[in-house]
What does this fold into?
Amino acid sequence: MSFTPRFPMFLHGGDYNPDQWLDRPDILERDVEMMQKAHVNCVSVGIFSWALLEPEEGVYNFEWLDEVIDRLWKGGIHVILATPSGARPAWMAQKYPEVLRVDEHLQRHHFGERHNHCLTSPVYRQKVHDIDTALARRYAHHPAVILWHLSNEYSGDCRCPLCQEKWRQWLKDKYGSLDELNRCWWTSFWSHRYTDWSQVEAPSPMGEGSITSMWVDWRRFSTWQCKTFMMAEKAAVQAVDPSLKCTANLMERFWDYDYFDLAEGMDVVSWDSYPAWHSGDDVAKAAEFAMNHDLMRSYKDQPFLLMESTPSLVNWKPINKLKRPGMHLLSSLQAVAHGSQSVMYFQWRKGRGGAEMFHGAVVDHDGRDDTRVFRDVTAVGQALERLQPLYDAPNARAKVCIIYDMNNRWAIDYAQTGMPKNMRYFDTVCMHYRSLWKLGVSIDFRDMRDCTDLSGYQLVIAPMLFMFRGGFEEKLRSYVQAGGTLLMTYFSGVVDEHDLAFLGGAPHGMTDVLGVRSAEFEALYPQDQNALVMKDGRRFPIHELAEIPEPLGAEPLGVYESDFYAGLPCLTRHAFGQGQAYYLAAKPEQEGLDAIYADLASQLALPRALPDALPEGVVATERGGAVFLQNYSGKEQRFTLSGAYTDLLTGQAVSGDTAMPENGVMVLTK
Ligand code: GAL
Ligand code: ZN
It folds into this structure.
């Protein structure tokens, strides 16, 4: 499967901003030579070019871009062409202030910055449509152009009068009547009942902030708004050439929108990955970013593109550190291992001014091509060429699926319970993921949409599935009934899709499947000590969150060590139908989860990328029959491989006693 059929190769390159260098034709000329030298085959162009493309309303200036694209094409460099809607020209903001966003404090922004347009404004949508159409007419058939990059990092929401009206309309369509809205939002609380649609405003710290159901709806509305905006851009460019595919670049840990939903509106997912390597624990970072990559693969259940990453460092983290030798190749190939068809950077050349003048780039202010960073980048380009046989190879269908659902995440984050800082849904999902990732087990992510199909998975993990929506409990029940293994944790099945508590006990509709009911739930102070003590005596400390269960027939595998609920089950297993359901009532540390999942992996004989035991921090990931062996441990490692392989990167035979340098990576094939 290729999303860039005009150039079905691993893409290597990055954001290129020639518009900042138009007065330096010598530099533009040199760029192409240097790209060739760096084994760069593709750049993303035009992301923030609107002011140059349309210097006056309705007056387009494409000559400079014609030249840039032709020059790149002559040099054998392909182009991912952006629509420029991520930032608008000053004249537009001045003439049509409605294109500017109104923030949560109900303040209209002035011209400046980026990613801050109103998603509703008919003027903005029209202007975007016009420029997108003009760009498509001019370039969609250019042989260099292989993909559309819609806007940039869509994000946020707007509370202008136009958006408020859109919001009310969306609510009318969803609820049909104000009575139904009042019911689903529980507005009899604090006398917040609405008696006329015109009273309903967007949630805001200046107004309504206490109706959690409303907040969750606001996030759904914002997702829908962004999706319609994005799809209008897609329709505009594909009206000219329907065969040219569209992507939008997504972000890590992103919270504003539901990416499963948004991804439905694009042809291929791409994303921007910026791990803070060497900030303390590279193994934990690697696990987190492996999870991000697997999320991106899962959103559309197909390969994805790494659209941005830094060749060296960023300039916006609290501390900005360079990648240590080896890490650039290692982290780039991590993306490939998990399904990427590209390694792209922000950015090709460092600008001379502005907020990003110190952001890492392939070419620094010194303009040299003999730097450490330039050599690292070149090595990635060469590696991708050697890995081309894997280009079309998808990741094998995983046998394990983690339920990760944005509606659930919002509901948890808005819920005023536990200790807000203890809820940490994303990190919790990541901890569960990490235990199996380190064993080399492939993992898919699924959410609670109707299309989710659990059949075929040996293990389904539902960490903190606080909200059940769309009757998901029925899906889980049938899955276990039919022979599946489910692991569910504390704080699951508490609210319905309106964020209203289920009456009659939690996890809703699952207590007979799990053989346990959650009776009480509490948060723990950092100094509180308790543990999960397994039947065989192993002891795993628990932290942050704990539930007191009422056993309903499940077999206790481990119990609480202390406090007034000492001896009550903390980890249980229950046979149901042909399958089994585990329930974890409290939050163990990583080691505890690792042990629980190691037991499960061997019990279920989950497929692993490599059969061999690897040292801590050395991880194997499988794609298309090749095993990406990655050393994140921060030191050299030695281990024994039982099979005989060839490293695709070096062509060398690898077997038996094997040494891997710090930040080393190998791609093993049989
Ligand atoms: C991304 C953004 C790029 C650039 C980069 C810097 O979020 O899309 O335009 O700003 O960050 O790391
Ligand atoms: Zn607006």
